[in-house]
Amino acid sequence: MRIAIASYGQETSSFSPVPTTLATFELYGLFEGQDILDKCRDVGSIGGFLQTMDAGIDWTPLPIVHGWAGASGALTAETLGYFADRIAAGLQQALPLDAVYFALHGAAVAEQAHDSEAYLLEIARNIIGDNVPIVASLDHHANLTQAMVQRIDALVAHRTQPHDQFDSGVLAAQLMLGIVRDGTKPTTAWRKIPLITHQEQFLTRSGPMQEWFDLARQMETRPGVLSASTLPMQPWLDVPEGGWAAAVVTNGDQALAETLADELADKAWDLRQAFCRQDSISPEAAVRKAMQMARGLVVLSDTGDSIWGGATGDSTTILAELIRQKVDKMVLLSLVDPQAVEVAILADVGATVTMLVGGKQDPTFGEPLEVTARVAAIGGGRLHVPLLGFESFDLGRAVLLEIGAIRLVLNQERGIGGNHPAVYEHFGIDVGDAHMVVLKTASNWQYYNEWISEVVRVDTPGGTTSHLEDLPWKHLPRPIYPLDEISDRGLAS
Ligand SMILES: [Zn+2]
Hints:
It is built from 14 helices and 17 strands. By secondary structure, the protein is an alpha/beta fold. It folds into two domains: 2-275, Rossmann fold; 283-465, no CATH class. The strands form three sheets. The chain has an eight-stranded mixed sheet. Strands 2-3-1-4-5-6 form a six-stranded mixed sheet, with helices on both faces. It is globular and about 65 Å long.
């Protein structure tokens, strides 16, 4: 059994000024051929897929390309061109094939294609034809489109936020085994939902998102249902088919798939007001609240500057407030700022420098902040820590600055900002000593779980602002809730 494997993932923020290039992919790991099997066997969707297939069938994996780039602006034409060329050449070389597995994010825009996944799937179809099955796993923040669904035989999206990429690979392998080993005949029904909401209710372990996702899990226990996917699209994607979706794959029962897809879409629509509830509070109130907490670690979630939503990771809003309120308990914070890293390195360890930090990359929301800080240490480089399906990430060069009780790490590369304790620990900081940590994410603070006493969402400006109405939408289909008042989700798609 010959099965080709490719992964391609990036989450585009249409409002980010930072383009995505091959260098961006290389920061997280861009592999070809055998390297994919060597490096991904235990991590990410590819790892889940490989292990489940190994246990289920005698097969030959034919790894082609693996690339993930986190979240930022659209891909340059050259970057998508690289994946197109690798996939075309790799599939051609791998023929004859029994099936293909694509691990995709599903919300990546490129200069030449607003639906870059469909663009790559079309290239694959042109080589393998219509009869070789394609199974795809997706991030549930994907923007599912007609062109994607048409070219995929069976799909499944992440079941949780924070995501479990490995699990999605396992589910994709189960769909694959169904087709190539057990003779299932997948058929898909899907619905577009005219809905786009901020990310404050995106966690799946509580609230409306849990209710919606639980309904999909219930459906999957019904005979003949192969997968039920709920797709609350990430809210920074300004494309003509943008919006939430639901997709149900059954074993040959189109009528059942249609009924369940409608039911999932109806559920999301019924919950639309709950999905829009805002919990974040002003930076002033958030810092005050955190300082009043008896013990740490208090997470201040910098909602508007979420690195994993494509924001620039250099917003100074919370740093300015921490300085203004003269916090006297240890706070951990990181900013992306290659220029300031250079200034600090030139000044050297032990020096006190006054300089502008952050706020340089986002022309709409950014505002540099002048600080006087002591250069405490110089570090950085590639940190080997498994997270979000990667086995390592690269900070570039990094420096640790001290501003009173504030421990500010400046990174040359955006990497993962300070969203993993390793960023601070590699400077010798014990995270348990800190009272607060400012995280550039609105959902992924799980790496700090062992210390967290409280999470405070901060209503900050930035590329991932909760105020979607403030973003300059141009291509999104209208009307869409809640940007427009509509009462009927319609029967789109
Ligand atoms: Zn996601």
